[in-house]
Design a protein that fits this description.
Layout: E1 4-9, E2 14-21, E3 25-33, H1 35-38, H2 46-66, E4 79-83, H3 89-103
Parallel strand pairs: 1-4
Antiparallel strand pairs: 1-2, 2-3
Length: about 100
């Protein structure tokens, strides 16, 4: 198998993770939407989005691992990619760290 890449995204109102081989073939992907959280307000509420990311990052990671993306059953991606934005960049690094530590 080629290089395994774990991607994590929590830039706005969704928390997502995917595992790719060589950056091209998707082995597994999961998205936790926040539509139900923000719908009553007519748009994204940053504080609610941040809290929701913290609530769902570990379950998202668990789903990725349980999907059996590693044929050898080994949790060792070759590369980690994390989508960040200027707003809450530090918080997103914490999400990624939580994801990795809790899911190992």
């Amino acid at each position: 198998m080629g290089k395994l890449i774990l991607g994590i995204e929590s830039s706005c109102d969704e928390t997502a993770a995917a595992v790719l081989v060589d950056g091209r073939r998707v082995l597994s992907s999961v998205v936790a939407s926040q539509d139900d959280v923000h719908a009553p307000y007519g748009g994204v509420v940053p504080e609610l989005a941040s809290r929701r990311h913290l609530e769902v990052i570990v379950p998202v990671g668990t789903i990725i691992i349980d999907a059996g993306w590693s044929p050898a059953g080994v949790w060792s991606p070759d590369e980690l990619q994390v989508l960040t934005s200027p707003r809450d960049a530090g918080q997103k690094r914490l999400h990624a760290t939580d994801y990795l530590l809790e899911c190992r």
